[in-house]
């Protein structure tokens, strides 16, 4: 077989469908063409979607000489920098990944756990019965504070205030759906970046953030024995096999990558977890039953190991994964996947969403059922909310820890209710999917 079937509608119509109704479009394509299909059939290079565990395993374990990562967004490169692990390939990618790993080792998680819980408790400490709040806005605030503390080692002061204001302002740029689509999906706007006012504003904001980040790096380098063990300090200390450390620009690009990978994504996942734990009362009841004996636990990482809490967070990431696809790969040498002969330049996409919707893997896949993660363990080719292979999200462990601990801390401190308990579906925000805005109210304090 040379090429799988796909939609014969115009490329423009397919793009519009995928931009505005991505989940429904993927479901329709999968229902009509099966596990493997081609999109934008009239355009080259060919773009192929895969979602079966067999194909995903083949893709995630393929030698880089056959499949390499392809990330070509001008805007993303402007934001994160050319030294971001997202854009690096071959030995450069391997080196950067090894340098980035130490801050995410299990022994670091215990300290991060205390920070996450303390920040969450501080944010909700002033809430009282009758307090209304927009869930996603509060989760964003918690996520940003965690980033400033865990990534930069900041809790207060000028750097903290500047970065908090600048990052909040930067992410607001992406809040308007039209701005998000124009920035990330329409190449016509990426060919003349200098003359586009929105793009110019974005560049100005990035330059301001760069000034603060570089000042922080310079100050931290002067400290012989930093008092904090935040990610920035650990990356400054990191050395590769030849004893070389990261250059300032590599540090900057790594820090911005961690921010963008962990801010909106984590806030959205926590929002979904709060929604499901209140939309389905039986889920909240089981969570509280499990949490109650451990509420006073000093070791917060112990809370993160609770089985039902872990299952709820896993099911949250399964049902509506924040990223619809894993990082795209491009064929370097002729290769075969599931009988399809793929030529060089073919773009290979793993659909995380469709992989998580397989009826033969997940019974009643459209339903929120945390118990499925207690009944069996899924392979990394069946469950892949953070991608896979050598491109799996490096901050996955920290993101999962934050989702669990923020959810557990809020549930153990407050009684909440949805203002409008109704079904909701994700909306697109640039490259990610997030819950629509919904409100909750504090009904009591535990």
TrEMBL record:
PROSITE patterns assigned to the protein according to its UniProt record, in alphabetical order: CYTOCHROME_P450
Q: Which CDD domains match?
A: CYP110-like
Q: Which domain of life is it from?
A: Bacteria
> Coiled-coil region(s) at which residues?
none
- What is the required cofactor set for this protein? heme
The family classification in the record reads:
Belongs to the cytochrome P450 family.
Which keywords appear in this protein's UniProt record, sorted alphabetically? Heme, Iron, Metal-binding, Monooxygenase, Oxidoreductase
The organism is Nostoc flagelliforme FACHB-838
Entries under InterPro entries matching the protein: Cyt_P450 (IPR001128), Cyt_P450_CS (IPR017972), Cyt_P450_E_grp-I (IPR002401), Cyt_P450_sf (IPR036396), Cytochrome_P450_monoxygenase (IPR050121)
Is-annotated flag, keyword Cytoplasm? no
**Protein name from the UniProt record:** Cytochrome P450
């Amino acid at each position: 077989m040379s090429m799988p079937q796909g939609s014969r509608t115009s490329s423009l119509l397919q793009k519009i469908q995928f931009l505005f109704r991505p989940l429904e479009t993927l479901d329709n394509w999968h229902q009509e063409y099966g596990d493997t299909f081609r999109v934008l059939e009239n355009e080259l290079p060919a773009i192929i979607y895969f979602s079966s565990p067999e194909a995903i395993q083949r893709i995630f374990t393929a030698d880089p000489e056959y499949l390499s990562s392809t990330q070509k967004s001008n805007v993303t490169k402007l934001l994160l920098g050319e030294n971001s692990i997202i854009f690096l390939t071959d030995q450069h990618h391997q080196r950067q990944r090894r340098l980035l790993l130490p801050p995410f080792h299990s022994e670091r998680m215990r300290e991060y756990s205390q920070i996450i819980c303390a920040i969450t408790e501080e944010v909700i400490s002033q809430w009282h019965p009758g307090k209304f709040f927009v869930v996603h806005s509060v989760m964003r605030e918690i996520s940003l504070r965690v980033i400033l503390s865990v990534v930069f080692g900041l809790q207060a002061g000028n750097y903290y205030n500047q970065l908090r204001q600048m990052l909040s302002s930067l992410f607001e740029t992406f809040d308007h759906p039209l701005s998000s689509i124009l920035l990330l999906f329409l190449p016509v706007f990426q060919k003349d970046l200098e003359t586009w006012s929105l793009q110019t504003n974005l560049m100005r904001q990035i330059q301001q953030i760069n000034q603060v980040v570089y000042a922080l790096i310079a100050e931290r380098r002067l400290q012989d024995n930093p008092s904090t063990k935040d990610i920035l300090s650990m990356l400054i200390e990191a050395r590769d096999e030849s004893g070389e450390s990261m250059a300032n620009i590599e540090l900057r690009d790594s820090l911005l990558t961690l921010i963008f990978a962990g801010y909106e994504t984590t806030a959205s996942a926590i929002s979904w977890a709060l929604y499901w734990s209140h939309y389905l009362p039986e889920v909240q009841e089981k969570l509280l039953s499990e949490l109650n004996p451990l509420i006073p636990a000093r070791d917060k990482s112990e809370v993160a190991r609770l089985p039902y809490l872990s299952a709820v967070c896993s099911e949250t990431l399964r049902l509506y994964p924040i990223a619809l696809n894993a990082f795209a790969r491009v064929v370097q040498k002729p290769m075969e996947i599931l009988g399809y002969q793929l030529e060089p330049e073919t773009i290979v996409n793993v659909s995380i969403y469709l992989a998580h919707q397989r009826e033969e893997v997940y019974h009643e896949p459209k339903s929120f059922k945390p118990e499925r993660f207690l009944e069996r363990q899924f392979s990394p080719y069946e469950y892949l909310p953070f991608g896979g292979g050598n491109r799996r999200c490096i901050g996955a462990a920290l993101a999962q820890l934050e989702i669990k601990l923020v959810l557990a801390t809020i549930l153990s401190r407050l009684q909440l209710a949805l203002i409008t308990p109704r079904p909701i579906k994700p909306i697109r925000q640039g490259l990610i999917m997030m819950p629509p805005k919904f409100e909750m109210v504090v009904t009591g304090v535990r």
